[in-house]
Amino acid sequence: MAEDKPLSVVTCTAPVNIAVIKYWGKRDEELILPINSSLSVTLHQDQLKTTTTAAISRDFTEDRLWLNGKENDIGQPRLQSCLREIRRLARKRHSGNGNSGDSSSRSALSLAYKVHIASENNFPTAAGLASSAAGFACLVYALAKLYGVEGELSEVARQGSGSACRSMFGGFVQWVMGQSADGKDSIAQQVAPETHWPELRVLILVVSAEKKHVASTAGMQTSVKTSLLLKHRAEALVPERMSQMTQHIQQRDFEAFGELTMKDSNQFHATCLDTFPPIFYLNDISKQVVALVHRYNAHCGKNKVAYTFDAGPNAVLFMLDDTVDEFVEVVKRSFPPENNGGQFLKGLPVGSATPSEELLSAVVRDPTPGAIQYMLLTKPGPGPALVEDASCHLLGADGLPQSSS
Ligand code: DP6
């Protein structure tokens, strides 16, 4: 920390993640402790990322927060938990360094300074992609850099949003549920780095969503209260699935990885239906995507594509790079673009393919124009990073958002 400067500022970026063994349900709402472990793939920040700038200055009179350019309430309890935890760790670290010296008294002083935070996504929030995971991971990472805190940060990110703890690492990441009541052992760990499976691709189908769905925090509360299926899943099924999934990833066994991914997504949505009153996240288009993937796999005689859905209708599809061109064409034929000039295919480049008539007649049924808004191709990617380039700061020298200052 450069406490002498009028303004200390850092900018960081963090990724989105998509769970292949789903987290759904808490045993502690305050600390965000889950009822089962989960496992996810971190998506590449070249396509989807949050950028956060955090600054402290003796001139700031209050903590302030801007999200995508608009001032937001910094008083939200989860944000406060993260801020409090990082400041506590910073205090601990500085007092551990011996609290008599000049530099530590300056550190203690800067801990009393107010913080300004600005955060932006490079993807539309309306796309319904899990932005809170990347958002809280980025916030915690940036604050840690600002206050010079190192060590176990996934435990702090978890207190912002459960799934955020998994965005603290790149590649393939498990969130170990832990046992202790204080949450110290409920942390994320990397299972394999992003370089482990270079052929793996992730194709996100952004479904044209009509209405807002039940937020995950509220949805999972009702599920924990009412679904015996969720209880059974968490206690009896997920432990085994966690070790199976880890093994499939380690062995880069796409068929098995894909199958378990689809089954776990289906089981999560089954627990939503078993919730009372029931929760529906999949819409008719999601179901059409499910059916399309199964027809395609049946035609190929093996699992070449796998779907997973979170608390919304968008499909996230896994496949290997040699399947992408053909499957993208299959999606285009099934959901002809109707996006009024917008780009239909975003992200990594896709080559052209001419699927055989035999394949098309076997898998494409009743094309639904306009049902998919756009597709985004990405791949596994690294965890949060510090941005060295000062021109990327979202806050100006006056500590206000660059655009509005
Ligand atoms: C369906 O992490 O958004 O995406 O902990 O209440 O913030 P809170 O919930 P959140 O839930 C994510 C649920 C999920 C599955 C998953 O990511 O594992």
UniProtKB/TrEMBL annotation:
GO MF terms held by the record: ATP binding; diphosphomevalonate decarboxylase activity
One example of a Gene Ontology biological process annotation: cholesterol biosynthetic process
ATP-binding keyword on record: yes
Domain Mvd1 C-terminal stretches: 202-386
The UniProt record lists the keyword Heme: no
Keyword line: ATP-binding, Cholesterol biosynthesis, Cholesterol metabolism, Lipid biosynthesis, Lipid metabolism, Lyase, Nucleotide-binding, Steroid biosynthesis, Steroid metabolism, Sterol biosynthesis, Sterol metabolism
All residue ranges annotated as the Diphosphomevalonate decarboxylase-like N-terminal domain in the record: 14-188
A Pfam family per the record: MDD_C
Catalytic activity: (R)-5-diphosphomevalonate + ATP = isopentenyl diphosphate + ADP + phosphate + CO2
GO cellular component, one term: cytosol
EC number: 4.1.1.33
Pathway(s) where this gene product acts: Steroid biosynthesis; cholesterol biosynthesis
Role: Catalyzes the ATP dependent decarboxylation of (R)-5-diphosphomevalonate to form isopentenyl diphosphate (IPP). Functions in the mevalonate (MVA) pathway leading to isopentenyl diphosphate (IPP), a key precursor for the biosynthesis of isoprenoids and sterol synthesis.
NCBIfam families linked: mevDPdecarb
Family recorded in the similarity comment: Belongs to the diphosphomevalonate decarboxylase family.
Name of the protein in its database record: Diphosphomevalonate decarboxylase
Species this protein is from: Podarcis lilfordi (Lilford's wall lizard)
